[in-house]
Structure formats: C-alpha cells, structure tokens
Q: What sequence folds into this?
C-alpha cells in the first residue's frame, strides 16, 4: 500500500492540477478564444452572408460603395479579424490532432498563422483603401 | 515504456481527478466505432466544413483586394463568380458555411452544458441539417433575386 501510494504520488499540487494551467501557462485560453470568436461571428456571418448574396452580380461601383459605407466597413474589419483568428485557431487544432511528427506540427501551425495574418492584413488594407 | 513513436502519445499520458496516472487511448478509435452514425458523421462534417470555409476565405480576400484594385480586377472576380465553376463552388461554400455556423451553435449549447442526452443530440443534429438546407436556399434566393434585377 505504501509503495502503491509512492507510485501514484504527484509532485504537482491539487490546486495546480485543478487550475489546468500546464507548462505553457495558457490553460484554456485557446479553447475559450475559439468560443468567443465563434459567438461574435454568429451575427456577423448572418449579416455578411445576406449582404454578399444581395451583391450578386453587382457592378463595380455598387460593390465599392457597399464596402465604403461606414457601417459595412466597420463590420467587415471586425469580421476579418475574428474570422481569421477563428480559422487559425481551428486549423491549429486540426494539425495538433493529426500531425504525428513534432516538426510537421510546429511547422504547419507557424505556416497557418503566417498565411492567416497576411490574408487578414491584405483584406483589412483593401477595406481601408476603399472606405478611407 | 518504449520510445515514443508518435508525438501525440505524449498527450495521452493523463491523470485522473484523484491524481493517479492513466494512459488514455488515442481517440477516435477508427476500428471500434461506426463513423457513419449521424452523431459522428455530423462531428466529422463540422471539421471538414471548417476546413472548406477556411480555404473559401481566399475568395473573400480576392474579392476585397480586387475591388480595392480597380474595375479590371473586379471584373475578373465577377467573371469567375458568375461562371458555372464559380457558382457551383459558391453554392458548396454557402452550404458548408451554414452547416459549420449552425453546428457551431449546437457546440456552444453543449459547451454551456445543454443537450447532451442522446435523443436531444439526434434531434439537434437533424435540426442542423434542415436549417442548413433552409439557410442555403434562402441565401441563394436573395442572390438570384439580386442577380436578376
């Protein structure tokens, strides 16, 4: 019994374990941000999908005027930031789940973040060029 | 223990709530579970539609950058989006996006602790499928009316 106890003794305190802040000290932050961005994207998706649909076949000036509208520009910028954060977070989890080599996992997560940042900056800049 | 072949195994070394060590199985176990049950199929579809939408975001970036660039670039996106390949792709993307969004609502409900029992899980799963169809048709109805006018 004493041996059994020694084998199962953990140096981490119960408080440390229950707080769930592992070696990365991140805890549930990544998971929580995925939920926060998803909740924020719900109304934005509804707005964007119906707006984009009503722009089907729109001439150049009409599309430009829609993006330039202050309300649309603000909501577009918010959507871009949230959508790329959510995309990067989701793709990261997929790589963490399926990549079975450490360098593949780390490399692909860095690549995902780089691509998402660049695409987000490019789209935000496009909105600003039209709206400002 | 033998040398770790798969880095994912590191995350399988867990501890029970009482602190005792346990080696958890690598999940999902493809040989044991029927992956085409509605519940698992919808779960897998949620991930796949997320990936599709991630790739589809490139079209949004293209559309925004082209509109900022000028009429020529905008004409190229419009040409692609009104081609049969573009329309087909956008119909698929619309359905994938609505599915991912609506199943996301289901996930948020689960995260809040609701709808975990089996009958409710099946009911909400079917509701997501029906709602995806409704929202996809609704979105394209708006698009077709806008396109025609």
A:
């Amino acid at each position: 019994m004493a041996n059994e106890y020694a084998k199962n003794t953990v140096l981490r305190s119960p408080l440390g374990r229950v707080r769930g802040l592992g070696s990365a000290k991140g805890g549930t932050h990544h998971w929580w941000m995925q939920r926060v961005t998803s909740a924020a994207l719900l109304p934005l998706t509804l707005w964007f999908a119906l707006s984009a649909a009503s722009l089907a076949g729109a001439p150049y000036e009409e599309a430009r005027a829609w993006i330039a509208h202050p309300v649309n520009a603000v909501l577009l910028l918010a959507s871009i930031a949230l959508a790329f954060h959510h995309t990067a977070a989701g793709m990261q989890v997929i790589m963490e789940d399926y990549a079975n080599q450490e360098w593949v996992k780390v490399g692909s997560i860095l690549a995902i973040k780089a691509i998402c940042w660049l695409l987000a900056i490019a789209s935000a800049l496009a909105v600003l060029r039209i709206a400002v | 223990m033998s040398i770790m072949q798969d880095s994912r195994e590191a995350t399988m070394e867990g501890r029970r709530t009482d602190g005792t060590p346990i080696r958890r199985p690598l999940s999902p176990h493809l040989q044991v579970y029927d992956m085409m049950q509605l519940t698992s199929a919808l779960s897998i579809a949620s991930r796949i539609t997320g990936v599709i939408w991630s790739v589809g975001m490139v079209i949004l970036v293209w559309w925004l950058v082209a509109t900022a660039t000028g009429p020529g670039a905008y004409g190229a996106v419009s040409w692609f989006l009104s081609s049969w390949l573009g329309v087909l792709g956008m119909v698929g993307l619309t359905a994938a996006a609505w599915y991912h969004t609506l199943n996301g609502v289901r996930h948020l409900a689960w995260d809040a602790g609701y709808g975990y029992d089996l009958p409710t899980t099946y009911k909400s799963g079917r509701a997501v499928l029906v709602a995806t169809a409704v929202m996809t048709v609704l979105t394209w109805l708006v698009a077709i009316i806008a396109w025609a006018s």
